[in-house]
Amino acid sequence: MYSLPKIELHCHLDGSLRVETVRDIARKEGIELPTYQVAELKKMLVAPFECTSLVEYLQRFALPNAVMQTKESLQRITFELFEDAAKENVKYLEVRFGPLLHVLKGLTLTEVIQSVIDGMRQAEARYEIKGNIILSCLRSMSVDSVFDVVEAGKNFLGKGVVAIDLCAIEEVGFCERFVAPIALAKEYGYRVTIHAGETGSGKNVSDAIELLGAERIGHGVFIKDDPFAYQLVKERQIVLEMCPTSNVQTKAVQNYQEHPIYQFYQDGIPVTISTDNRTVSDTTMTNEMVCVQQALMMDEPMYQAIYQTSVVAAFASDEVKAWCLAQYPKKGN
Question: Where is the Adenosine deaminase domain (predicted)?
Fold first, then answer.
């Protein structure tokens, strides 16, 4: 499985920085860090495998954001993420990030978005990988701020930006607050993926689908405890962007063996595999595949089916999807 092509649909930019890059940018821009030793810095950027909760996991994002406040840094960090993905044979990568987190030193939302797209295009030109950008909005921010992101990103639709997302701390019933800005985003042509069911509420998943029109769900683990949400996802074939290592870390599940991805797959629910955060979870797509293979006995036919599901679910053009499907080795080759 190491050499097989991969598709990643759920990867956060600010959770996937190279440790050395954090140090280099901090030195260049005069940003004070608690340490400049790579080994010690890594401990501050990588969440412990035994996190107590999603809250503890999310604490690892403060330091990366400090070095993501200039056009040059955003472009470099994006390029490096795509470069790292390409080197493990990821053929298509959707990167999500919160533009409002990167305006602390004066960048406009337009400049932030353009810088990330520039980094992606630079990588696409150099490596055999294609990508798109998802604009994330933190649920802890105001509803008006979501409108701001939707408006700033609409001119980039079809030019690198494809979707809108809601993320961060998950409270029960959050969807009701964001109906209006997500509806406007859909009107403009954004696709919709929503973080839901990462912590204990399956109802958030059904709300994301019914109130916000989510086409995909980030995580969705807790539909396992909500029969209505489970059936809704199954009947409407809503794709779940599952991130096994992250889910173990945040205690959505206790271990890989208890992860519901195999149960969902066996029952006809469309599932995909992603890293969530390559640095915070200290993982890669290859590692995620191996963990699922070892813990849940994923065989090659299952992986091929997940690959195909991922391509179909991608917020990509038909041309890119056809190219991705063509990358999978045919039997007998």
Answer: 5-322
Report pLDDT for 21. Answer: 98
Cα–Cα separations (whole angstroms), residue 103 to 66, 194, 216, 225: 11, 23, 28, 39
pLDDT in the model for residue 1: 64
Give the pLDDT of residue 55. Answer: 79
Candidates 170, 198, 215, 288; catalytic one: 198
Phi, psi of 239 (to 5 degrees): -80, 130
Which residues line the annotated binding site? 10, 12, 14, 195, 276
Annotated binding-site residues for Zn(2+) read 10, 12, 195, 276
| Strands, sheet with 239-242, edge to edge from the N-terminal-most edge strand | 6-12, 90-97, 130-138, 161-167, 191-196, 216-219, 239-242, 271-273
**DSSP annotation string for 117-128:** HHHHHHHHHHSS
Q: How many CA atoms lie within 13 A of 48 on its CB side?
A: 6
pLDDT score for 142: 96
More confident residue, 47 or 215: 215
Dist. CA 280–CA 257, nearest whole Å? 21
- Joined together, the tokens standing for residue 167 give 């993320």
Ordered alpha helix ranges (H), 97-199: 109-126, 143-153, 179-188
**Homologous superfamily assigned to 6-326:** Metal-dependent hydrolases (3.20.20.140)
Q: Is residue 127 left, alpha or beta, with left meaning phi > 0 and alpha meaning psi from -120 to 50?
A: beta
Q: Which contacts of 55-58 are long-range, i.e. CB under 8 A and separated by 24 or more positions?
A: 55/169, 57/246, 57/249, 57/250, 57/280, 58/168, 58/169
Known binding residues for substrate are 12, 14
Q: pLDDT tens digits for 15-60?
A: 999 999 999 999 999 999 999 999 999 999 998 887 888 878 888 8
Residue 103 CA to residue 105 CA, distance in Å, equals 6
pLDDT in tens, 99-120: 999 999 999 999 999 999 999 9
Nearest to 63 by CA among 104, 32, 94, 27: 32
Give the pLDDT of residue 122: 98
Q: Do 47 and 130 touch, CB atoms closer than 8 A? A: no
CA distance 321 to 328: 12
